[in-house]
Each structure stands twice: as C-alpha cells, then as structure tokens.
From TrEMBL:
Pfam families: DctM. InterPro entries: DctM, TRAP_DctM. This is TRAP transporter large permease protein. The lineage of its organism: Bacteria, Pseudomonadati, Pseudomonadota, Alphaproteobacteria, Rhodospirillales. Keywords: Cell inner membrane, Cell membrane, Membrane, Transmembrane, Transmembrane helix, Transport. It is a multi-pass membrane protein. The keyword Transmembrane applies. PANTHER family: C4-DICARBOXYLATE TRAP TRANSPORTER LARGE PERMEASE PROTEIN DCTM, SIALIC ACID TRAP TRANSPORTER PERMEASE PROTEIN SIAT-RELATED.
C-alpha cells in the first residue's frame, strides 16, 4: 500500500470520526497516529518521537501567545459590558430608521469583532444584548435571529481574528498583512448585511419597525462612549502592521486596554475578572489541543506524501485554476456541516494551500496569492457557521430567542447567505479588494 493511499485512508477515517461527532482534536490524534503506525509497520518509535517534538515546538512557540491574549481581550469586552455600549451607540445613530435596530446590531457585531476575534462569542454576546431590544420593538423573529446569526460571523472576519492567526502560523504568512487584508472585506460584509436588512424591511415594513429618534445630545454621548474601543482597534492593527509592536505586544496592549476600559466603565469587577480569566484558559486549552492534534495529522500526511502528490496531480491534470478553487470552496461549505471554523482551517490548509500555491491566479506573486487565499478561505469558513442544517451560530442565537422556531432562524439567514456568496465571488474575481490596503501600506 503506497504512502499516498495510506494518507487518503487516514483522512477518510478522520472524516468518518467527525461524522460520528468525535472531538476534532482527538480525531486528528487518532488519524495521525494510525497513519504513522501503518507506514512504520506498527513501530511506535517514530510516532512517539514526532509527537514529543511537535508538542514541545507548538507549546513553546512565542508567536502563538497572541491567541490567549486576543481571547482575553474578547473576554474583557464580553464581561466588561462593552458590547452594550457598542449596541447603544449604533442604535442611537440609526435606530430610528426602518430596520435600524437590526442594522445597529450588525454594526455592533462588526465593532465587537474588532476586539473579540471569535464568531461564536460575538453571536452569543450580541445576541444577549440585542435580541431583547429587537423583540421588544416588534421586530420579526426571522429578521432578528437571522441578522444576529449572520452578523456574528463578523467576529472572525473583522481583525483581529484567531483563525487568521492560525492560518498565518500554518503558512508562515505575516499576521499584520492578513489583518490589514481583512479590513475591506469585513467592511463589505457588514455593508452587505445592512443592504439585506434594508431590502427585507422595504418588502415587509412590519418586520423591522422604526423607533423614535433620540435627541442629538444623546446620540453624541453614545458615540463618545465607544471611542476608546475604536482606539484599541487602531492601536492593535496599526501597531502590528506599522512595525512598532509585534503581534504579541499589540495583543498585550489591546487586552490591557480593554480591561482598563471595562473597569473604568464599571462593568469589570472581581467576578467578571475571574470569569474572563477562566474563559480564556478554557478556550486556549481547547485550541492548543486541536493545534497539537493537527500538527500530528499534518506531519503524518507529509510523511505519506499525500498533500504533495495531490498538488502535483492537480497541477498536471490541466484543470482550470478556477475550477480547482471553486471545488475547494464547495468542500469548505460541506465541511461546515460537521466542524467549526478553527478546525476547518487546521484540517484543510496543509492540504489545500500547496494546491493553490501551485496554480496561477491573475498572475499574482506568491505573497499576494497566500494573503488572498487566506482571506477567501476565512470567508468561506464563515459561511459554515450559519448555513443550515447545523451552522453553530444558528443554535447559539436560537437558544437565546425563546419562542422563535429553528426553522424561522434558518430561513432568516438565507438572504444573508446570498450576500456572503456574492461577496466571495467578488473577492475571487477582484483580488485587489483584499490586497489594495496591503500594497497601500507598503506590503
């Protein structure tokens, strides 16, 4: 049995375990170990040596300390009440429009994503804040839950983004370039969702009734309350890309700043601090278990030569690059049925990245292609969080929306999914959308 065949069999076994709901980290350990043992005729020496070195190399990697710091920043924002300030500011500005509070929820999710980096956390936090307001103002359950489930995905698209950090580590790409490249697609995503809401309430005004306008003094006061959050975002992103702070230093500054803002606003006290630290530790442990499992699987696949053989087969097959790319996009959408965004990135990038880098797209050089594919992969992974039947954001929001059937939430996200697909096509055929800022800042 050839190494490639062993690698394919191991990968098929992994997918079977995921279909049976085995934890992604455990499934990767089992699949990677099985591939090593099969290639080495049952000998454990190479497997144990590799696992020992991989675990040490991963856990001692200074670059990965950025992950718990960004998670801590998001925890401070969640437990410190910053989400309420963001929703209040957006609602004060546009809540008097038809569908305005739903649009404000999208804007608040985008702003919260700029200090959180997790879609599930963004959906859960903003759902708790915005859903009661939307329901109290007479918004339909379909529009309210669909908006929040879809807008929650902005948590990983608006930088800083934990999946983008992982992509950067896996591909040796610049975190700063990826963060900057995600800014314009993130803004387009938020504007696309706002446009969807506008179209929905135009066809059905009762779905999103307008609220009474607030005095300008209150609107201004609400905007001033979120200026510190905007400053944190600018410090983190500009600091990383401009070079005066590396990603870990910028994340440290951002986490400390979010903690101080939450404390000064009165939302952060001892119970919230303990909950933030506990939540960060729990999420970090889960991510690192998956990372080490992915390292073992990827090392085993490399030994089997399966990714290299696959890339060579695609390159020599004569298939148009766009056909290959859209096949990868289709696989991502299917994988969204069985795993979350981080697991998809860890599982697929070592396989798909060499394939994409071996093809020509619009004459792009290797760096531009790497950044472009990273943003594209992130956007497609984002769809997996909301597309029925098992999009995780759907369940998070529906659990918060008592009295709204899951069917209504699933139908509610459909117009937003159409916006997502149009945006993916736009990024595929106009790569400059995500590369323009990178080049403008001298990338």
């Amino acid at each position: 049995m050839s190494g490639t065949a062993i690698g394919l069999a191991g990968f098929a076994g992994l997918m079977g375990m995921l279909a049976l709901r085995v934890h992604i980290g455990v499934a990767m350990f089992i699949a990677g170990g099985a591939i090593y043992l099969t290639i080495d005729d049952g000998q454990t020496a190479a497997l144990l040596f590799t696992l020992n070195n991989l675990a040490f190399a991963r856990l001692s990697n200074y670059d990965l300390s950025v992950i718990p710091l960004f998670l801590l920043m998001g925890q401070f924002a969640t437990h410190g009440g910053l989400s309420k300030a963001l929703f209040r500011a957006a609602g004060a500005l546009i809540g008097h429009w038809r569908g305005g509070l739903a649009m404000a929820s999208t804007a608040a999710c985008a702003a919260f994503g700029a200090i959180c980096g997790s879609s599930l956390a963004t959906a859960a936090t903003m759902g708790q804040v915005a859903l009661p307001e939307l329901q109290a103002r007479g918004y339909s359950g379909r529009l309210a839950t669909g908006t929040l489930a879809a807008s929650g995905t902005l948590g990983i698209l608006i930088p800083p983004s934990v999946p983008l950090v992982v992509y950067a580590v896996l591909t040796q790409e610049s975190i700063g370039k990826l963060f900057v490249a995600a800014v314009i697609p993130g803004v387009i995503a938020a504007l696309g969702y706002v446009a969807v809401i506008a179209l929905i309430v135009r066809r059905n005004p009762a779905a999103g009734p307008a609220s009474a306008p607030l005095p300008w003094s209150e609107r201004l006061r609400a905007q001033l309350g979120v200026l510190p959050v905007l400053l944190v975002f600018l410090v983190v992103i500009v600091g990383i890309y401009d070079g005066w702070a590396n990603p870990t230093e910028a994340a440290s500054i951002g986490a400390a700043a979010c903690g101080l803002i939450a404390f000064a606003s009165g939302g952060m006290r001892w119970p919230q601090l303990v909950a933030s630290i506990h939540g960060t530790a729990q999420a970090t442990a889960m991510i690192f278990v998956v990372l080490i499992g992915a390292d073992l699987l990827n090392s085993a696949l490399a030994v089997s030569q399966m990714p290299v053989e696959l890339a060579a087969w695609v390159r020599d097959s004569g298939m148009p690059p766009m056909l290959v790319l859209f096949s990868i996009i289709g696989i991502y959408i299917l994988l969204g049925c069985v795993m979350d965004s981080l697991a998809m990135i860890l599982l697929t990038i070592p396989i798909f990245y060499p394939v994409v880098m071996g093809l020509d797209f619009f004459g792009m050089d290797a760096t531009d292609k790497s950044v472009w594919f990273g943003i594209l992969a992130l956007m497609v992974v984002e769809i997996g969080l909301v597309h029925p039947p098992v999009g995780m954001n759907l369940y998070v929001i529906n659990r918060l929306a008592r009295g709204v059937p899951m069917r209504e939430t699933a139908w509610g996200v459909m117009p937003f999914l159409a916006s997502d697909l149009l945006r993916i096509l736009l990024i595929v055929f106009v790569p400059g959308i995500c590369l323009w800022l990178v080049h403008a800042f001298g990338g």
